[in-house]
Amino acid sequence: MNKSKIKTEELANIKENLSGVQQYFDDLSNFIPISFLVVNPLHIILEANPFFIKLSGYEEMEIIGSSIEDFFLEKKEINLFKKKILSSRDDKNEVELTFTKKDGEQFPVSVSTFVRKDKKGKIFGYFLTIVDITDSKNFKERIDSVVSEKTKELESKNKEVAESRLALMNILEETDEAWKNAEEEKEKTASIIANFTDGLLVFDKNDCLDMGNPKAEKFLRTNLEKLVGKYLKDLNGSDLVKAIVQVLLKNEAFQKDKKSSAKVKAAHREEVKTGDGQTLEVSAVPIIADKTSIGTLVSLHDITREKMIEAMKSEFVSIAAHQLRTPLSGIKWTIRMLVDGDLGKISKDQKEMLEKTYESNERMIHLVNDLLNVSRIEEGRYVHKPEMVDISKIIEPLAESYKMESERREIKLKLDIVKKKNLTVAADVEKITLVAQNLLENALKYTPKGGEITFSVKHKVKDNKIEVSVKDSGVGIPKDQQARLFTKFFRAANVVRMEVEGSGLGLFICKNIVESHGGEIWFKSEENKGSTFYFTLPIVNEQEFEEFKKKL
């Protein structure tokens, strides 16, 4: 009797435990925020949680007893997946399929299964989860994490430890691989810097020398290890190091606000000569990260060969121009005598032909003079007659001399000079006249009939400079060609098509003349609307004039 009572109590406890397990499982499936199914080995759905019912749009009774393939578009893939679930060695399987709702709506989902086995390892069904992957990968990862956590409660502790260990090993392998890749990239970068043909110096955001390559050490003839860690202003060593430091201290890259994003327009380049005839081109650019300067890269480029070739070319041009000048002068005066009838009477046709020949010869003489001017500029001996002069005494006569030419071309020429007593600048009058004349002639050549030219002189009080400008309503300069305008032998494509005479040297000469006077030259232009060319010269007193002469 007692034994029967004990068995009855044990049976009641077992039923209560089973009921509790069932209740736990029901609560778990309702809690997990994903679509969840319990499926038997025949792939028939036994249970569906509320999330699946809501996702599919079917009633619970419509779902229970259905095959899982009824809910997916890809029948072939789902059949293969069903076989894989029961035959695979892995308890977990995953596939991406297209889910079909009751109302016909379709969307991509990730389907995951976890096989259920008894103690003997026999499969008696599986859990199936469906995740809408159109939302986001991050949401999917969170769902998988929740499912994994709740599923692990049904697994043995040994398996949990094994999987955790495996996951940790994978992470360690990936970390090790990433570290090796980073080291390889670091070695590649170091190798590139070490074998770079230019000398490289890297400064940090505080202008401390951080590193330099062997080429830089060779150029500077100094052991860089002794300089690393020092501020730019404190670098010392050879005379070349000191010269380069002075150049860099004036460089825009080292004068910017380190706390704000660097806004250096372009790498500023400057030449530095060594004691043995070598010439280095020094340039510096900021190193930018997240729109903020984290340092500065300095490049030392050996341009000795280029300078030698340039000098040889300039010497050749100078010799050739000098050799051409004498016979061209002889031809000029001989033709002039023929045209004037000094060597006998000539016919009208002969005179017209000789006048055309004279004009062509004049253009050749003008070209030769331009070549000689370029040669003198490159040799640094172009400005040699500086004097203190009122700029209006250069501009006014020049404008007056072109008045008849502008009227002949039917172009309105307007002169606008600021009324101020002191417009005195330090200038080689002949050369500054050449600049203004060149700009005015260009405006006349490229402005069509009926156009307008304004020749202006203004006083820039803030900068204490004189600004001269020539504004026209001519053909303008194409935007994609404006950067090359002040280079030698360049002529814009639209003026070449106009077949207007020109050597492409005028603006190059103008730029060098103005800069040698301590001024600046620039322009604003829009194609088919016109151009305005500007140049400035500093206003000087007697003391400043004497300092200017010493620099020449």
Characterise this structure.
Strands 2-1-5-4-3 form a 5-stranded antiparallel β-sheet. The termini are far apart. 46% of the residues lie in helices and 23% in strands. The longest helix has 39 residues, at 157-195. The chain has 16 helices and 17 strands.
Strand-pairing-aware structural class: alpha+beta
Q: Extract low-pLDDT stretches.
A: 258-266
Give the mean pLDDT: 80
Counting copies of identical and different chains, the oligomeric state is single chain
Q: Helical content, roughly?
A: 40-55%
Proportion of residues in β-strands: 15-25%
Number of helices: 16
CA gyration radius, whole angstroms: 44 Å
With strands numbered from the N-terminus, the spatial order across the biggest sheet is 2-1-5-4-3
Overall spatial form? elongated
Topology at a glance:
Blueprint: H1 2-31, E1 35-39, E2 45-48, H2 50-56, H3 60-63, H4 75-87, E3 92-100, E4 106-117, E5 123-132, H5 137-152, H6 157-195, E6 199-204, E7 209-212, H7 214-220, H8 239-249, E8 268-273, E9 279-289, E10 292-302, H9 304-340, H10 348-379, E11 386-390, H11 392-401, H12 403-408, E12 412-417, E13 424-428, H13 429-445, E14 452-460, E15 465-472, H14 493-497, H15 506-516, E16 521-526, E17 530-538, H16 542-551
Parallel strand pairs: 12-14
Antiparallel strand pairs: 1-2, 1-5, 3-4, 4-5, 6-7, 6-10, 8-9, 9-10, 11-13, 14-15, 15-17, 16-17
Helix pairs in contact: 9-10, 10-15, 11-13, 13-15
